[in-house]
Design a protein that fits this description.
The complex is a heterodimer. Chain A is of the alpha/beta class. Chain A contains 14 helices and 13 strands. In chain A, 40% of the residues lie in helices and 13% in strands. Helices cover 41% and strands 19% of the residues of chain B. The chains are: A alpha/beta, B alpha+beta. At the A-B interface, α10, α12 and α14 of A face β1, β2, β3, α2 and α5 of B.
Chain lengths: 404, 138
Amino acid sequence: MLKLPIYLDNNATTPMDPRVLEAMLPYFTEHFGNAASRNHSFGWQAEEAVDYAREQIAKLIHADAKEIIFTSGATESNNLAIKGVFEMYAEKGNHFITVTTEHKAILDTCKHIEKLGAEVTYLEPATDGLITVEQVASAIKPNTVLVTVMYANNEIGVIQPIKAIAELCKSKGILFHTDATQAVGKIPVDVMADGIDLMSFTAHKMYGPKGVGALYVRRKNPRVKVTAQMDGGGHERGMRSGTINVTGIVGFGKACELCQQDMAQDTERIIKMRNRLEASLSELEESYINGNIEHRLPHLSNMSFKYVEGEGLIMGVKNIAVSSGSACTSASLEPSYVLKALGLDDELAHSSLRFGLSRFTTDEEIDYAINHVKEAVIKLREMSPLWEMFKEGIDLKTIQWAEH
Amino acid sequence: MAYSDKVIDHYSNPRNIGTLDKASKQVGTGLVGAPECGDVMRLQIEVDEVTGIIKDAKFKTFGCGSAIASSSLATEWLKGKSVDEALQIDNMDIVEELALPPVKIHCSVLAEDAIKSAINDYRAKNGLSPIEDNKKHY
């Protein structure tokens, strides 16, 4: 029996895998020690569990366990990476390079350091969401200290040419950071092969608990350091003070282990479902897949259904939990800045839905979602004046709209 | 954000969706909003030649649930009213009836604009000067 509503917003967060929960439970009540307590077995047990988790996490991304700095999540990791480099390498330079379609945790942090005297170049992606290594190359200046480019985009799922950008940075002696929140656990991410210096990721996007994330900080070739953004006990090699979240970290470790173990088979199944969803919804006239379809995460699909407004559509598909690129609920009425950065018409940006699949998504759920979305789009188009005009062959761009 | 029952009702069972003959002298058409704002309403009235009463009203709306509900409600209210009575419909009446939250007040404003725009179109077709809208919203 199908349980409604169906959760298809797995790029916002994933449900926790029951195997992760099971691993975590003893660390709430039984092994509750502070991993920094060096004088008794409670502390030792907690530390041992954290060390084990650090290994599990490091293994997934091909890092050394010592290179994992625990944080509260990817937002904190992004803040620590950017602000930490800004402070630590102030003598070397103050120029940063990023992309307009990054997550707000990157963009707003960049704006913050701009106020403190940093200079930031924001690269604009092509209409498929990708940037090129040449774009990065031409933005580099003598005072560039950090390039930060997300591994895979959270709204459209496109995967940036990370390895090529990292190689370029290395050749110029510039640090390279990537926000890999959407990628780690879903596609193979290898900090050694990719040449990444700093990388943010989080547990709750890969079937782990919320409130725990990590910043990978390279220790060799080059040895990278970031200035701590919180003062305190000097935990995490002095880069992030504060008692570490032992239960969360245990869950994070287990989640990484499971992703490593199940990735190939999960991906195969998920990609089939995603492709079926897209193929069926593409049967609707004037429907579009947003972003590059080749270099893309397997579990995400962002589609626009022209002449239907996103929020109205969300209301019409109430039995599935998805997200919309339209932010009509905010006073600004601004559509997604990511979709706008791709050069999408406003009405297409307003008409988008993001579907996020997980290892728990079933074929039955996808069947339901397909019919549900189709019915809603058809119904809303019947009541859309724009659809009627389109059908009459009127070019909407020729109309003088009374903006309000 | 939770929608009120009335918004959900109008969204699920919209009244008076459709199109009237734009070319008819008895029909006034108002098209307001803009695609890039995420809201476009088209509201039409058909005025009885003899009695001056709005005998039919239709709408089509591209927008969120509140925008659809506001225009659906407007067509319900318009039917049976004289043109002068129709001009008295205030956006705050729509806000109240549908229990719209503050972020959705613009949907009711748009519906009121659509009514006025349809009436002015009708007036223009019948050699009458447009009604000035001096009202300040909010």
